[in-house]
Amino acid sequence: SVFIIPLFGIILFTLACLLYVPLKWWQFRSRGAKQCFLDSLAYAHRVHGEQSPFTACSLYRLGHYYILQGELAAALYCFESISSMKVCQADPKGVPYHIMSGRICCALDRFEKALEYFELALLLRKGPAVCSAMHIQQIHHYIGKTYTKMGQHDKALEHYQEAVNAMHEKGYKLNMETAK
Predict the structure, then answer these.
(1) How far apart are alpha carbons 52 and 150 in whole angstroms?
(2) Distance CA 116, CA 101 (A)
(3) Which span out of 40-54, 82-96, 105-119 was modeled with the highest average pLDDT?
(4) Structure pTM?
(5) How far apart are CA 64 and CA 76, in angstroms?
(6) Disulfide: which of 17, 44, 167, 175 matches 54 by Cβ 3.0-4.6 Å?
(7) Helix 95-107 crosses helix 72-83 at what angle (to 10 degrees)?
(8) Which residues contact 119 (CB under 8 A, 6 or more apart)?
(9) Which of 46, 132, 124 is nearest to 90 (CA)?
């Protein structure tokens, strides 16, 4: 009985993943994948707790499901839930969740909130952790994109320049063919 409970969670998660990939092709016409993700989330929350990596993983998958469905508000709820977890607040591993939350906020025209997420991601990346030039470039790009949507082109240009500088500092060469 000790192995049955974790095994049940693994089976639910596997079923959700198996349905996720093939149904993505069919634009998720079936509610099966969503229900599997919700069941997996409920199980992770019940067994492992609200702050567990298993819960974060289930929220991550559910958030991507909602993005593919065009339900950005629901996706934002999932990614904000992950971003608010204690492990993501001060850990550089939380950077992708903050970036995704910011991207969704920007798509929903919640620019100030998007900038908060991007700034938090940038702050975590500039901390004592090993900096990824790609993450820093990506964060500055999205900050620039947000400022562009806000009509603040001078600030946007500063961040686009920071994105290019971050790549140059790490030895990346700008290839105009890939930049197009």
Answers:
(1) 36
(2) 10
(3) 105-119
(4) 0.70
(5) 10
(6) 44
(7) 150
(8) 143
(9) 124
Tens of pLDDT, residue by residue over 56-80, are 888 888 888 888 888 999 999 998 8
pLDDT for 24 equals 46
CA 53 to chain centre: 14
Rg (CA), the chain: 19
| Residue of 7, 4, 29, 6 lying closest to 19 (CA atoms) | 29
User: What is the C-alpha separation between 39 and 16, in angstroms, rounded?
Assistant: 9
**Residue 113: pLDDT above 90?**
yes
What's residue 172's pLDDT?
Answer: 60
pLDDT tens digits along 149-173: 999 999 999 999 988 887 777 666 5
> What gap in Å lies between CA 154 and CA 39, rounded to an integer?
47
Residue appearing with tokens 């603040």: 152
Q: Residue 97 corresponds to which tokens in the numbers above?
A: 């969740």
- Residues 143/115, Cβ–Cβ less than 8 Å: yes
- For residue 23, count other CB atoms closer than 10 A to its CB: 19
Q: How far apart are CA 180 and CA 176, in angstroms?
A: 6
Contacts of 131 (CB under 8 A, 6+ apart): 125
Structure tokens at 126: 């500039």
**In angstroms, rounded to a whole number, what is the distance separating the alpha carbons of residues 45 and 89?**
19
